[in-house]
TrEMBL record, chain A:
Pfam families assigned to the protein according to its UniProt record, in alphabetical order: DNA_pol_D_N, DNA_pol_E_B
Organism: Cladorrhinum samala
EC number: 2.7.7.7
Keyword Transport in record: no
Protein name: DNA-directed DNA polymerase
Family: Belongs to the DNA polymerase delta/II small subunit family.
GO CC terms: delta DNA polymerase complex
TrEMBL record, chain B:
Ranges of biased composition (kind: Basic and acidic residues): 247-260, 292-304
Region feature Disordered, mapped onto this chain: 168-442
Biased composition (Low complexity): 172-200
GO terms of biological process kind: DNA strand elongation involved in DNA replication; DNA synthesis involved in UV-damage excision repair; nucleotide-excision repair, DNA gap filling
Biased segments, Acidic residues type: 305-325, 335-344
Domain of life: Eukaryota
Compositional bias segments (type: Basic residues): 363-375
Protein name as annotated: DNA polymerase delta subunit 3
Organism, as annotated: Cladorrhinum samala
Chief localization: nucleus
Length: 503, 442
């Protein structure tokens, strides 16, 4: 409870100083930043390949870890005097024998979009699905376990205790029943991958204590912070939250508020924009048949350039160009952003931002090059910031998983992704993805310290721990357009604070 | 009356405008914090004179009551033991609220705060602000005022900020000479000087090394960059690039063969030079000028990684392209003379084998030449087969160079357009041609 009397005369609620001396200028600390090119696709890529290789690669990469976990858990398991034994392939499971086997989960769901169906109905161009969820209430969904040999249906109470989606790799313990289904008694995941130590890729910048005494004496003590924001959704038509966006800009610039808070804010050393910076296009010009009949004379084949509204990207450009002189920005694309639709989304092209791009990196710079001050990166994106390994996505991977599971526990699903060691298990089944041939980058080879997912309906965070002492900070970055919230991460403790902006 | 009071009276009271601290700060060139205090003082003094004349909005930052209430009572500890994916709860984190509040509702809003870390006047207006969206319009006005990135628009400076050099029009102009330079570098290992002068340009064109480019961005302003390049290209660089371009021309007029391809290669600025340099490296050669025609043909043939079919076709197209090429090469800053009159080139004797000139008057040449024609026929199995067969084709074209002994050195010919880079013609003669070029230049 704060009253008017308490704040009267506080801070800036007083006369301007008569002598007019300027307040001590503040400086931001350096952002220690090293992006990785895990999800960068080759410039010349083709789409002729089959998608099956992704599953194969994923299985070969994760299976050893799953089996290890399974052996540790079930090595001496005996049920009814029968010892559980390992079976190499799904097809080798024999009726009545207690055994365990590892494979890829496939969810058979009637509502789930299926490429076979599209082909059967002669639909060669598939539109993005509009379904809210794939699971069906009637219980027609079934869980399968498959590998390169075949498939077996999983039944039993045990599987209901876990989130399972297409593409995750699990090991199941059970027996095959008379129906040819596997009665699952228990199941295991790979669990968290090994975690690199802090500063494994970059070096901490030496503290400027010796040469810059003034800085350490200034009130801007405290550790550095990173600002995470998602879903700015600059819109060409709606100005519903333009005031909030302006406040956000002033907040990040350090222009708003009073000197004590400003010195706190000067510790924000980087802004990460996790997707959906541009609002969804209104469907005014394309789509419904009624539209076409309304004005048939304007119907054109192909892309109608006159329907393009450049305002959203201009606004985003202006926003970033205001911010860039004071703060480096990492920009991930999201669902609505002008990047490719399939995972992994490639960086938004610099040509979209004529004002901001001068801060960008050189387009042909090599991998070891210094990243741009404005770094347009992939989605998902991996990198090391202040020594912490970070993995972030624009949110499509989590949104897609949520369609499989009748649950609102998004944090739990984020945790599950880490324990499955797969950041986008539903690619390429329901999450569009590039048909990888040689590498499956969605497999988490190394455990991140911070895993953030953008464009979420609400804020959420927690820390999960692995068996080998791994600690992962999970953060759901809420959509700014919906919640007007941003997230600040302390770079020493990975503690999270949220700031809600209202106007 | 203070200047700010006057500004505020003019804008708020007389012109009925909303003034935010950002606008005031930029209009009067004062620090944002000072501007906030000015607004406060103005609001206070005006309302003391006549209550209700000025309405303010406040920006409040602090911790709100109830903002940190946990959503569930579960503990993380329990999570580890329970099945991994039982409902997980979000951790409770510190939560701040940044709110823009009107004067009228300030009291109530403050009551909702547990702690206020900062409060200041955000804007003043002659009316109570009902729609905060209107403040966004003021923000747009602010944008137009803050063009310079000075201390006022960037209150927290970042000493580590860096930009990259803009790649503008000036760069493109410089691009053309730089590519031949790159070629020359590979061709003539002796041209150390050229290579030393050119790395900047070459890097610009192909793969810019970030460190260097950044250094450039800092040191070189946009304006000076093209100028610098120009300087480079008109100096020793240009000499080499022209010398490089010239022998090719030479080949063309002699052999009327693959130079079409070659010239386009010289003109292309799309970064192919890497590949090219590599190819050239694999078979080092001496100075281009000393090549015999045969050698060169052979080399070009190999360079063009094409089978003979294409080459023959080139031969056909060559005629049409010849004129184009001249125009193109002029664009590429290695100017060609107008059709050969003033600058006689060695017409080749060997050419006669494949070319019979029947008449040559009024600046036109007519005759026949041997060409390879493509013929498509269907064979007995129904396949379409393309075959090549030699044939004669009559032609009529602009005056070609009068025949001359191919071996005659060109050094002695004082070209009228010498300063424009006609020297290249001399270079083809062979002996000491490059040197003669330098001496003239000097």
């Amino acid at each position: 409870m704060v009253t008017l009397e308490e704040v009267a005369g506080l801070g800036l609620l007083q006369k301007p100083p008569s002598n007019g001396d300027a307040p001590e200028p503040l400086q931001r600390p350096e952002s220690n930043y090293r992006p990785l090119s895990t999800f960068v696709l080759p410039k010349e890529r083709q789409y002729q390949q089959q998608f099956a290789d992704i599953y194969f690669l994923r299985l070969t990469k994760i299976k050893p870890a799953v089996e290890e976990a399974a052996i540790a858990a079930w090595k001496n398991t005996k049920i009814g005097g029968e010892k559980a034994k390992k079976v190499e392939r799904v097809l080798d499971v024999r009726q009545g024998e207690l055994c365990w086997v590892a494979g890829t989960v496939y969810m058979d769901m009637p509502l789930k979009p299926s490429i076979l169906e599209d082909v059967a109905k002669d639909r060669w161009i598939s539109a993005p699905t509009t379904l809210d969820h794939y699971y069906s209430e009637g219980g027609q969904d079934s869980v399968m376990l498959e590998d390169d040999s075949g498939r077996i249906k999983l039944v039993g109470e045990a599987i209901k205790n876990y989130f399972l989606v297409t593409g995750c790799i699990i090991a199941v313990l059970g027996t095959e029943n008379a129906n040819g289904e596997m009665e699952v008694i228990d199941l295991k995941f790979a669990d968290l991958p090994p975690q690199p130590a802090r500063w494994s890729l970059s070096k901490p910048s030496p503290r400027p204590k010796d040469e810059d005494v003034e800085m350490t004496d200034s009130p801007s003590s405290g550790s550095k912070k990173i600002a995470l924001v998602s879903g700015l959704e600059f819109s060409g038509t709606s100005t519903a939250y333009a005031a909030e966006l302006n406040l956000l800009l002033e907040f990040l610039l350090g222009e708003a508020l009073d000197p004590s808070v400003q010195s706190e804010l000067s510790q924000i050393s980087r802004l990460i924009i996790a997707g959906n910076s541009i609002a969804k296009q209104e469907d005014a010009h394309h789509g419904t048949a009624s539209d076409n009949t309304k004005k048939p004379h304007t119907k054109k084949y192909g892309y109608d350039a006159s329907s393009y509204n450049p305002l959203p990207s201009q606004l985003l450009d202006t926003f970033m160009s205001e911010l860039l002189p004071t703060m480096p920005v990492t920009l991930l694309p999201g669902t609505n952003d002008p990047a490719n639709a399939s995972y992994p989304q490639q960086p938004i092209h610099a040509a979209m931002f004529p004002k901001s791009r001068t801060y960008g990196g050189l387009p042909q710079a090599g991998e070891d090059a210094e990243p741009g001050w404005l770094d347009m990166v992939t989605n998902p994106w991996e990198g090391e910031v202040e020594g912490w390994r970070m993995l972030g996505t624009g949110g499509q991977n989590l949104d897609d998983i949520c369609k499989y599971v009748d649950s609102a526990d998004r944090l739990g699903m984020m945790e599950a992704m880490c324990r499955w060691r797969c950041s986008a298990p539903t690619a390429p089944d329901t999450l569009w993805a590039y048909p990888f041939q040689d590498d499956e980058p969605f497999v988490m080879k190394e455990c991140p310290h911070l895993y953030f997912v953008g464009s979420q309906p609400e804020f959420g965070t927690k820390v999960i721990e692995g068996s080998e002492g791994q600690m992962v900070r999970l953060v759901m970055v809420p959509s700014f357009a919906a919640t007007k919230e941003i997230v600040l991460i302390d770079t020493e403790t990975l503690d999270v604070t949220r700031v809600k902006i209202s106007a | 009356m203070d200047s700010y009071t006057k500004y505020l009276v003019d804008n708020v009271l007389s012109e009925d405008k909303t003034v935010t601290y950002r606008l005031l700060s930029r209009a009067l060139k004062v620090h944002a914090n000072t501007a906030k205090q000015m607004l406060y003082e103005f609001h206070l003094s005006q309302n003391a004179k006549r209550p209700g004349t000025v309405h303010a909005t406040y920006l409040v930052y602090g911790v709100k009551k109830g903002g940190n209430i946990p959503k569930g009572a579960n503990e993380d500890v329990e999570m580890a033991s329970s099945p991994p994916y039982a409902e997980s709860v979000t951790e409770v984190v510190q939560s701040y609220a940044l709110s823009l509040i009107t004067e009228e509702s300030l009291k109530d809003a403050l009551a909702g705060y547990e702690e206020v870390s900062s409060i200041h006047v955000y804007s003043v207006a002659p009316h109570a602000t009902k729609d905060m969206g209107l403040l966004a319009d003021v923000a747009n006005e602010v944008l137009s005022l803050s063009t310079a990135k000075d201390e006022i628009s960037v209150p927290i400076t970042n000493p580590y900020v860096r930009t990259r050099e803009r790649r503008g029009a000036g760069l493109k102009a410089a691009a053309a000479p730089s590519v031949p330079a790159a070629k020359q570098q590979a061709k003539a290992p002796a041209s150390k000087a050229a290579s030393a002068a050119s790395p900047a340009e070459i890097k610009e064109e192909s793969k810019a090394e970030p460190g260097q480019a950044i250094a450039k961005a800092e040191n070189i302003t946009k304006k000076s960059t093209p100028a610098l390049k120009r300087g480079g290209s008109s100096g020793i660089m240009a000499a080499f690039s022209k010398a490089a371009a010239k022998p090719k021309k030479d080949v063309k007029t002699k052999a009327e063969k693959p130079s079409a391809e070659d010239t386009t290669m010289a003109l292309s600025d799309d970064g192919e030079d890497d590949e090219e340099v590599e190819m050239l490296k694999s078979k080092p050669r001496s100075t281009a000028g000393t090549k015999t025609k045969k050698e060169r043909e052979e080399e070009l043939r190999r360079m063009m990684d094409d089978d003979d079919d294409d080459q023959e076709q080139k031969e056909e197209e060559e005629e049409e392209e010849e004129e184009e090429e001249q125009v193109k090469s002029e664009k590429a800053e290695s100017p060609e003379p107008e059709p050969m009159e003033e600058e006689p080139t060695t017409g080749s004797v060997e050419e006669e084998k494949s070319e019979v000139v029947e008449s040559s008057n009024n600046g036109r040449r007519r005759g026949k030449r041997k060409v390879m024609r493509k013929k498509q026929i269907m064979d007995e199995q129904g396949y379409l087969v393309t075959i090549q067969e030699p044939g004669w084709e009559s032609f009529s074209e602009d005056e070609a160079p009068p025949p001359r002994p191919a071996t005659k050195p060109k050094i002695a010919v004082p070209a009228p357009v010498a300063s424009k880079g006609k020297k290249g013609a001399a270079a083809k003669g062979g002996q000491g041609s490059i040197m003669s070029f330098f001496s003239k230049k000097a």
